[in-house]
Amino acid sequence: MIGRSPTSKFVIAAVGIAIAAYYFLVNPASFLLFPTCPFYSATDLLCPACGGQRSMHHLVHGRVAMAFEANALLIPGALYAIVGMVFNTGKGNSESGRSVLAKIYGPRAFVAIAAAAFVYAVVRNLV
Predict the structure, then answer these.
(1) In a domain, 52, yes or no
(2) Which of the chain's ends, N or C, has fewer CB atoms near its CB within 10 Å?
(3) Is residue 92 a part of any domain in this protein?
């Protein structure tokens, strides 16, 4: 499982910091290295991840409202992932703590997140 050893936690943190620094320095809206969404290119419809790169750029610059406007799923999704990585230490957790994590990050949670992403994609293309 990811995040159990101190080395893997360090690597995950270092990669996260590097990604945040890259998005701080480079604006994906004006830099050609960032790919366009293949789903959007093929259908002219926004997928749940469309705008995520611009949202990340705004977020690391502290422009939360603009980040939310670019992609409303990025902020709660990033928080969900960060909380999961922080609390997924494996050792020292109580049995009840592991049970809660299993529910919040288990198969049912995956289905709920996929359903929320689908609904978000449909709604953002209707508005």
Answers:
(1) yes
(2) C
(3) yes
Read off the DSSP letter of residue 32: T
| Confidence band of 21 (pLDDT split at 50, 70, 90) | very high
Residue 71 vs residues 8, 9, 102, 124: alpha-carbon distances, Å: 29, 27, 27, 10
Q: Which domain holds residue 80?
A: 6-126
Give the separation between CA 12 and CA 91, rounded to whole angstroms: 18
Confidence of residue 4 (pLDDT cuts 50, 70, 90): low
pTM, full prediction: 0.77
Instruction: Quote the tokens at residue 95.
Output: 């049995």
Cα distances from 10 to residues 78, 89, 90, 103, in angstroms, run 18, 13, 16, 26
Q: Which of 76, 75, 49, 47 lies closest to 62 in space, CA to CA?
A: 75
What does the alpha-carbon distance between residue 75 and residue 86 come to, in Å, rounded to a whole number?
Answer: 16
Side chain identity, residue 68: F
Q: Is residue 32 part of a domain?
A: yes
Residue 13's H or E segment, with its range, is: helix 6-25
Whether residue 1 is contained in a domain is answered as no
